[in-house]
């Protein structure tokens, strides 16, 4: 979306991902592009099924090959296209340069391997060191995420959910990656643990100077951590801007709807106003704007909308042909 | 909290040590293990402890009932049944274990390949194995025996081949389940090569149901070897295989039933023991059955 930054640290150009589901094609991601500067944090926000995780997994090319029908576009890491790399080059990137925190700590850890082995695994791979050195590193990582090192030899089932997520974080950070993808790192955890884990991620990001892509459906989380925000709907970034742009001046009707559905302690509202309807069926290709059936501002133009971006400012872009004008918010 | 605690709490469910400790607390499994061990030892030392050689004939004592002289009586040629039964135990065990080993090794390899790579390889392998599965196991083993001929080695081969498809199906189903687990993606995402993912993540998680299938397979194949011998395929007279002993005793069952009953009881006890062990292992490895 920001063409002027020629050689961003990390950028995605026109990413398209389609899955096959029986005879049908699932259009999961439809032309996503964004840039990320070193040290910045981007929040990807959207409903379940909007394509957030697909974007994350296609960055590391870990989508199951038998389910993917088409994966096109460019994922540029320091100017190198990850989609063009061979297996050896790819393995050097994975874990070492870019790594990922998974959504569900219950399934992201191998139940029959000790946690220190799992954390050490990537470190051995990238640093060609002995097992003992790597396990020492694993213990350091566990201490870093707040787990005592004498629990290093235990198995995942002996940890609570929050601690498992800490282990997953330790695993992702073991090789000090320069870009961290956090895929809904707090969704599977309860609220008190969520806050702890988020604080931890934030602290580690600041200490290690890592760039981050944070995937979430929780706008509160985005507000606390991110610099840039991308709102995703039906596989497209429909609003992109700095945190101030999106939170102070939400412009796409969908983003406005999201904020309207959020409880606010300061306002006395009888009822929250949810966005009516359901996200579109991803197996259908929709003519015009995908948000049309649920949109409060729909008009004739929307039916033939071709997703030409509307620039509101240098940093703020939306995909909408009939946005709310200035002064008439909501 | 480190791994030196004596109870099973600190061991991961599914590890061999965990299964072993739980097994020792299960009465029926201990019974099964004891019987199997005692039979194996007795069989190995039977030439030393038995008063009679299993081959030596004593015409005067033919058909004799159990007595102080011959503890379990004699068969139609006057051979001591106790010596024969104990010596013959080794055949049941050898056939049971080796044929299961053949089936497990080939079946696991084929199932793993089919499950992991999927697509055309999967279809080709599994359709090929479907041919085997369309026959009842014993009929298939009989067909192989008819082709290969008779003898212990052929019997092992026939039973081994007939059992491949069961192992392959089980392994394939497990691999399919694990291949899509998030921890496999997680391992990929930190840069693990495919070889390490298969050996370090996929196989260790897929193996526990296979252990149960192996325990059950040994008893099934031991029984099947007796059936084959009884039918005149498989192990032949004068080798004292239990099924072969039953087979030769059946002509005299009305007048000298002990000749058939004794090897029958041994078959029963052995199969029961293996089944008890297999049942216990399955219960231990099935987390939904935990109290």
Question: Can you give keywords for this protein?
Answer:
heterodimer, A: 330 residues, 8-stranded mixed β-sheet, 4-stranded antiparallel β-sheet, disordered N terminus, B: 291 residues, mainly alpha, 11 helices
What does this structure look like?
The complex is a heterodimer of chains A (330) and B (291). Chain A has 330 residues and is of the alpha/beta class. Chain A is 31% helix and 23% strand. Chain A contains eleven helices and twelve strands. Chain A has helices at residues 52-59, 87-93, 105-108, 115-127, 131-144, 161-173, 191-208, 219-225, 243-248, 253-260, 300-303, and strands at 10-21, 24-36, 41-46, 68-77, 80-81, 98-101, 179-183, 211-216, 228-233, 236-242, 310-311, 317-318. In chain A, the strands form two sheets. In chain A, strands 6-7-8-3-9-10-12-11 form an eight-stranded mixed beta sheet, with helices on both faces. Chain A has a four-stranded antiparallel beta sheet with strand order 2-1-4-5, with helices on one face. In chain A, a hairpin with a 2-residue loop joins strand 9 (228-233) and strand 10. In chain A, helix 6 (161-173) runs parallel beside helix 7 (191-208). The longest helix of chain A is centred in the middle third of the chain and has 18 residues, at 191-208. Chain A is globular. Chain A starts with 9 loop residues before the first strand and ends in a 12-residue tail after the last strand. In chain B, helix 2 (27-49) crosses helix 11, helix 3 (81-117) packs antiparallel against helix 4 (119-133) and helix 10 (242-249) packs antiparallel against helix 11. Chain B contains eleven helices and no strands. The model of chain B is unreliable at 1-8 (pLDDT under 50). Chain B starts with 15 loop residues before the first helix and ends in a 6-residue tail after the last helix. With 291 residues, chain B is mainly alpha-helical. Chains A and B meet through helix 2, helix 4 and helix 6 of A and helix 7 and helix 8 of B.
């Amino acid at each position: 979306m920001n063409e002027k930054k020629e050689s961003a640290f990390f950028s995605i150009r026109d990413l398209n991902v389609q899955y096959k589901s029986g005879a049908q094609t699932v259009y999961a991601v439809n032309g996503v592009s964004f840039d990320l500067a070193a040290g910045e944090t981007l929040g990807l926000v959207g409903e379940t099924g909007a394509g957030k995780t697909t974007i994350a997994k296609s960055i590391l090319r870990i989508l199951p090959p038998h389910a993917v029908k088409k994966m096109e576009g460019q994922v540029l890491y320091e100017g190198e296209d990850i989609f063009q790399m061979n297996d050896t080059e790819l393995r050097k990137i994975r874990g070492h340069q870019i790594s990922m925190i998974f959504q569900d700590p219950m399934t992201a850890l191998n139940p029959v391997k000790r946690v220190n082995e799992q954390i050490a695994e990537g470190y051995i791979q990238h640093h060609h060191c002995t097992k003992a050195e790597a396990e020492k590193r694993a213990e350091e990582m566990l201490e870093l995420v707040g787990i005592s090192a004498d629990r290093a030899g235990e198995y995942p089932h002996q940890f609570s959910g929050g601690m498992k997520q800490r282990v997953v974080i330790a695993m992702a950070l073991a090789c000090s990656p320069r870009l961290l993808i956090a895929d809904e790192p707090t969704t599977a955890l309860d609220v008190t643990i969520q806050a702890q884990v988020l604080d931890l991620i934030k602290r580690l990001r600041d200490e290690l100077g890592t760039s981050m892509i944070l995937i979430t459906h929780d706008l509160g989380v985005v507000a606390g951590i991110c610099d840039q925000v991308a709102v995703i709907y039906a596989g497209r970034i429909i609003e992109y801007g700095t945190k101030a742009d999106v939170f102070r001046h939400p412009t796409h009707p969908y983003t406005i709807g999201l904020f309207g559905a959020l409880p606010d302690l300061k306002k006395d509202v009888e009822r929250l106003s949810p966005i009516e309807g359901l996200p579109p069926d991803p197996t259908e290709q929709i003519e015009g704007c995908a948000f049309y059936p649920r949109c409060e501002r729909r008009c004739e133009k929307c039916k033939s909308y071709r997703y030409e971006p509307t620039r509101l400012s240098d940093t703020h872009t939306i995909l909408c042909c009939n946005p709310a004008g200035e002064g008439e918010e909501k | 909290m480190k791994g030196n605690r004596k109870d099973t709490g600190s061991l991961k469910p599914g590890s061999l040590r965990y299964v072993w400790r739980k097994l020792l607390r299960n009465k029926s499994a201990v019974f099964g293990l004891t019987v199997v061990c005692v039979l194996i030892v007795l069989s190995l030392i039977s030439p030393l402890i038995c008063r009679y050689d299993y081959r030596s004939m004593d015409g005067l004592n033919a058909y004799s009932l159990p007595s102080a002289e011959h503890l379990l009586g004699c068969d139609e040629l006057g051979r001591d049944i106790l010596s024969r039964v104990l010596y013959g135990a080794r055949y049941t065990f050898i056939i049971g274990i080796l044929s299961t080993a053949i089936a497990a090794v080939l079946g696991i390899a084929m199932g793993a390949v089919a499950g992991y790579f999927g697509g055309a390889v999967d279809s080709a392998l599994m359709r090929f194995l479907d041919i085997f599965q369309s026959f009842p196991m014993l009929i298939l083993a009989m067909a192989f025996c008819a082709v290969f001929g008779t003898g212990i080695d052929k019997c092992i081969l026939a039973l081994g081949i007939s059992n491949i498809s069961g192992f392959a199906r089980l392994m394939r189903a497990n691999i399919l389940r694990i291949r899509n687990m998030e921890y496999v993606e997680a391992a990929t995402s930190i840069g693990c090569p495919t070889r390490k993912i298969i050996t370090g993540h996929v196989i260790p998680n897929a193996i526990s149901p296979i252990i149960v299938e192996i325990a059950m397979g040994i008893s099934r194949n031991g029984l099947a070897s007796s059936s084959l011998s009884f039918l005149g395929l498989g192990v032949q007279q004068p080798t004292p295989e239990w099924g072969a002993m039953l087979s030769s005793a059946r002509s005299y069952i009305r007048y000298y039933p002990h000749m058939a009953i004794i090897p029958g009881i041994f078959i029963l006890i052995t199969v029961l023991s293996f089944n008890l062990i297999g049942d216990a292992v399955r219960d231990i490895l099935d987390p939904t059955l935990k109290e």
